[in-house]
Amino acid sequence: MDHVGDTTFMGDSIRRADTAGYLPQFRPLAGEPNPFAELPRGAGPGSYEAELPLNGFSSEKELADRVLERLEPWFWVDQEVSGTHCTGVRLRIDAMIWPRDFSQWKAPDVAFGIEFKAVRTGRTLYDPGLNAYTRWVAQAADYTHTNWDGYGRRLILCCPGVVSALKGYAGTRDARGDLLVAKRLMGQLGVGELVLRWGQGLTILFNGERVWSERGGVSKGKYWSLRARSGSR
Hints:
Elements: E1 51-52, H1 60-71, E2 75-85, E3 90-99, E4 112-116, H2 130-144, E5 146-148, E6 155-159, H3 162-166, H4 175-188, E7 191-197, E8 201-206, E9 209-213, E10 217-218
Parallel strand pairs: 4-6, 6-7
Antiparallel strand pairs: 1-7, 2-3, 2-5, 3-4, 7-8, 8-9, 9-10
Organism: Microbispora amethystogenes
Protein name: Restriction endonuclease
């Protein structure tokens, strides 16, 4: 049974907080301003779209719980979803989300998988290294070729954003071009990012483009079908 767009057959893992129709009490994730209020004056150039590190959490579970709590007014959330990879291996992803209101989205059955990684945790700011980041992207790409139980194949979001984390490893003057290529290549593989932007709040990105944000609502999601693809693009 396809879960998306129908709450009748949802499993027990669905977060059923009564959040539809009103905004929750704002709790910042990384010291960002409230995305539902007027932004503070005097912000420097570029700060509106600046991505903030989600590194102040003691565990991956705390990160996931806090981020999903912020998404609940706009998305249904199903946690610990299992599926079958095209090789036959059974896999599990941290969460599956889909809009409570599809009216602003081009695809009437759009949904996203989310894989969280506490790449830097607590006060120690543990950094697993470049290899861990690239393995994370490879894992997410595998997930795009997985038939998730009740959801089918879906685009996958990495949270926090992988490319933002990789900026620390890009030491060349043309690093921005390198990072743009990384974002576009991830997008072609069906992998996007769920990031925290100073002026937009939580933001879904594909190909480096904003698909949805807390402040702006649906943007590119109005025009893009956002489906997992294979073969010719």
